[in-house]
Each structure stands twice: as structure tokens, then as C-alpha cells.
Fold:
Amino acid sequence: MNLNDFLRDTRQQLENRLLASFDAPKSERLRTAMRYSLLNGGKRLRPALVRAAALAAGNDTQDWLIPAMALEMIHVYSLVHDDLPAMDNDDLRRGKATNHKEFDEATAILAGDALQTEAFAILAGADSLNDRQARQMIAQLSQAAGANGMVGGQMIDLQSEQKTLTLSQLEKLHALKTGALIQAALQLGVLCQSPLSGTLLSAFERYGRALGLAFQITDDILDVTASTEVLGKPQGSDLAADKATYVSLLGLPGAQQQAVQQHQLALGALAEVGMDAQTLLGQLATYVIQRDH
Amino acid sequence: MNLNDFLRDTRQQLENRLLASFDAPKSERLRTAMRYSLLNGGKRLRPALVRAAALAAGNDTQDWLIPAMALEMIHVYSLVHDDLPAMDNDDLRRGKATNHKEFDEATAILAGDALQTEAFAILAGADSLNDRQARQMIAQLSQAAGANGMVGGQMIDLQSEQKTLTLSQLEKLHALKTGALIQAALQLGVLCQSPLSGTLLSAFERYGRALGLAFQITDDILDVTASTEVLGKPQGSDLAADKATYVSLLGLPGAQQQAVQQHQLALGALAEVGMDAQTLLGQLATYVIQRDH
Structure:
């Protein structure tokens, strides 16, 4: 399967499963708000990473689906909360009204809260996972999502506004804010397969770290080079918010050079375990720096 | 141990463990905000229920501590988010500034988010739990906390403001909003002990349902009978927000009668498994309707 087919098939399978969930809700409004953001057409990069990592570990079953759904719920909840007026105060996300604009602030807070809970609920309740797998996946995902991962990064990000960061501080921030969840995607994929490959886990940790940075640097680049229409949110919004970015620190050519470097590091980590740039994970690394939104 | 000693000892053990957690935080501000609400002097009723249920199931070890901490983190995160301006907009909680008043809204949102994550992280990471226990506790807690439990109840509560509810609608609302977590406390306690006692689980489900209602009815009564000083929040705040309560539906004497009825139902469920009103769970049921705040 080529990369585009793989991404499309992953999106379709994931969204079919997401559509089928949340039956018999106690609150129709809450469910509608959760689904609104969950099915709001993301690239589904993290689910694709879960699946590609599981495949690389030798698991070609549907085992990737549950951890991919859980991870995507965590990712989407974080977007819903990040968009809130008290946080980034964004009106648009992927070209559509953000959750609190479509519904209201209270609903967006609760929908985000419930999406986070549901992520752990589906891992704990999945028939396809044994007790050890379910527990390890929950451990990895909660570490990546919590105070010493994604949420910690978001807090540091908010405190960093209108401050000048060094490159090293910016890297630390993004290692938490976006990197932790990307690394978790790879770990969850490897955890689909038993026995666990320690070699793969450690190579994927390096691959994930580089991929996460490449992803963030590319986001920063797209913020100044892509149109509002293609981005689905206002061009230059980081600039407007006076945020430290790779572009503001290194200039556009410097940022582009950094993205290429991280791309090379990611491919290098794959090479250590005998994988080349043409594998799905290699192609995903290339996709991450070449995407247009 | 009498009830007061039991409650005090439970509080102390729980708070000692909470104080020792969150080492080496990535964001000092986030940790400070999480600890601020987590150590803000609650009654710790839910942890006491976990411990009393574990004891009743025959487990007198410290196994109750991890699930009690997890449950309290879920409870506290929900309070932090409920107090936000977009939700109940409360300035005071237990006589102190609410989280967003002490810090700011963004910090309160993130502290709540991270507390929820941490609840699942400590269950997944606890050495004292085997894989099956950890997974079952996470399954129970996430079911109780999510869209078909606590958060669903909170959503229904917000949609019910300025509406007249029937008694049955009010009961459904509270079964989700506060009842689900109280029931989870008992389930988590029973799950500390293996093999699992199905008889105990089903009796505690009935006990928990009645206890949760007794708790909520008493809250509604205290809102009109207790002073602002004793409550730690403004007296009559439900009334001011035009909320449907047991007092607004049934009047004060009617609400008091309902609390007594639920108390009797709780004791009756205990009697089915050979426990009397003098056991810790019996005393806790009495404490719930006789407390002054």
C-alpha cells in the first residue's frame, strides 16, 4: 500500500469506528459536541503512526484501532481545550467553527473532559487487548498526556507567550506539547505486538523525537507560508500572538534547514533497525515535512 | 476505630501520599495549581468509602490508597472545572479562592485536565495492583467519570438551569453527577480484594445509589440551612442560580424526609449482606445525612 492509500484507509477505518461509538448517550448535547470535534476531519497522523508502528513490529491485525482511537481522543480533547477563550481563543479549526463557537464554552470544556475519560475507558474495556497490554497502553498514554507530557507543555507554552525563548527551551516545550503524544503513538503501536521488541521501542523513541520536532517546525513554517484557506485557520496566527516559533527564532531558511535535519535523524533511527526511507514510517517522516497544511 | 478516627486517619494517610506525589514537575506552576485544589481540605468522603468498602471485603492492607487517590483526583478535577466562569462561576470553594481565582482560567483548565490524566496514570502505574485489578479499576472509574457518568450529569445539570425538573429527572441527574463517583468508590474498594465478591458488589451498588442521593439531598438542605462560614461558599447559591434542588421541589421538610428514606435504604442494603448500622459503612451513611457542611 502506498502512503496515500495507507493514510486514507487508516482515516476511513478509524472514523467508521468512531462513528459507531458513543451509543445511547445520557446527554445528546454532550455526545454531539464530542463527535463534532472528533469527526472534524483531521489528518489522523497519530493513528497512522500507531498502525505503521504495529505493522513494523509484525502485527498486521486490527489491534491498532483501539489504541489509535484512544490517542486521537486525547489529541482532540487537547485541541478543544486549547481553542477556548481562556487559552488560545481560536474561532476556527480545520476551517470550521471551534467547539466552543459551535456550542458554548461550558459544553466545550465538558466535551473535552469526556473525550479524555473515554480514551482511557476504551483501552480499559477493549476485548482485543489482554490485561497487560491494556494497562501498559494506559500507562504510556497517560504519561504522555499529563502534567509531565502534553498538558505540561501547554502550560509552559502559555507561560512563554511574549517571552523570548532559546532554541533549547523551544525544543523542550514542543517535546512535551506535541512530541510526547507522537512518541506515545509509536509506543502504542509496538505494544500491539507481543512479545515486546525493546530494540524497536528504543529506535522508535529516537524516530518519534525527531518526527515530533520535524512536525512542529513544519507547523511553524506553514503558519507563515500557507494560506488561511489551506490551513483552515488564520495565516500568521502564531506571529499575531507573538509566540516563539522556529521561524521567529531561526528565520524561514533556518527553520526549513532544521526540519530537514530532523527528517534525516528520523530516517537514521529507522535505519538502525534495518528499515529504509521507503517503509511506511519512512514515508510518514517525509510526509510530515512536505505536507501543505 | 470509631468513625471520626477513621475519617481523620484516612484524610491523613491520603494527604501524606498526595503531598509526596508530583515530584520533579516539568511545570512548577501546573504542579502548584494541581496541589492547591487537591490539598484544599475536603472531607475525603470518597476515599473513606473506598477504604471502608475494601475493609468490608476483607482487605485490611494499604491497597485502598491508590484507588482512593485516583478517585479523589477525578473528584477534584471536576470541582476545578465546575467552578470555572463558563460553568458555575464560583469564587469560593471550601472557604478559599477557587483555582481560577487563585491562578487564572487557563491554569485551572489545565490543572483539571492533568488531574484527570494523573488519576488514570497512578492506577496504571501502581505496583500494589496486578494487571487485572488495575485494568478493572480504570474501567470502573472511567465509566463513572465520563460522558455516561459524572460529566454527562454535569452537562444535564447545566442544561437544566432555569427549568423545572420532575423529581425523577432530578434523581437521574444526580445519579450521574455525584452518584456515579460514589458508586465507583465502593466498587474500587471491593476490587482491592480478590477473589471478587459478586454479592458484595451488588449490595454496595444499592447502598451506593441510596448514599449518593442522601448525600445530594443533604447538600441541597445545607445550601439553605447552613451558614456561609460553615459551608465555605455562599449560603443559598443554588437558590440564587435558580437551580432545581430537592428543597425547591419538595420543600425543606419533604427533602429532610427523603434524606432519611435514602439513609434507611442504604442501611437496608448493608443488612442484606449481614452488616449493621454500626459498621463503618453504616456510620458513613449516617454521617452523610447528619454532617453540618
Observations:
- The two ends of chain B are 23 Å apart (CA to CA).
